[in-house]
Specification:
Helices cover 11% and strands 43% of the residues. It has 152 residues and is mainly β.
Length: 152
């Protein structure tokens, strides 16, 4: 967990504002960093291309919240498959195997919150990677286990 004081000054970000990162088919804008929330949570706005997929994985430190703003997703929780459209909300407690793919031919835009904070550091480190083979090592350092491709 991040050991810093809680954010004591209000701040506001307009649409598109925040640290912008590009990760293999997605654009991530960090809306709330670990430092800004005193370690309480991270908030990301993520725009995913129409062919975007997150492999099945487990967060051992963070709970994950996803809210669909645009487009549609197919989410996987272990053996379960859920369809997500605009307005859908999903809470994935830490330790839950999960992943998703964008459904259809249109991109998707989501809000993703992780509780507690710290996932922003993983995302920043992921963007800096050159060889993709290092991705699993970075995930392991952040207590995330990559399980493999999503079921069909």
């Amino acid at each position: 967990m991040i050991a810093s004081p809680l954010q004591t000054e209000p701040y506001a970000l307009k649409s598109g504002e925040g640290q912008r990162l590009e990760l293999a088919g997605s654009v991530v804008v960090i809306k709330a960093t670990s430092e800004q929330t005193g370690g309480a949570f991270n908030l990301f706005e993520v725009t995913c291309s129409s062919d975007y997929t997150i492999p099945q994985h487990i967060h051992y430190v963070e709970d994950v919240v996803i809210y669909v703003l645009e487009g549609a997703l197919t989410l996987f929780w272990g053996d379960e498959k859920k369809e997500a459209v605009v307005g859908s909300f999903f809470f994935q407690p830490r330790g839950t195997p999960h992943g998703f793919r964008v459904k259809g031919n249109a991109p998707a835009r989501i809000l993703c919150m992780t509780i507690p904070a710290g996932f922003d550091r993983f995302v920043i480190e992921e963007e800096l990677l050159a060889p993709q083979s290092e991705s699993e090592m970075v995930a392991a350092r952040h207590k995330i286990e990559i399980l493999g491709p999503l079921p069909e």
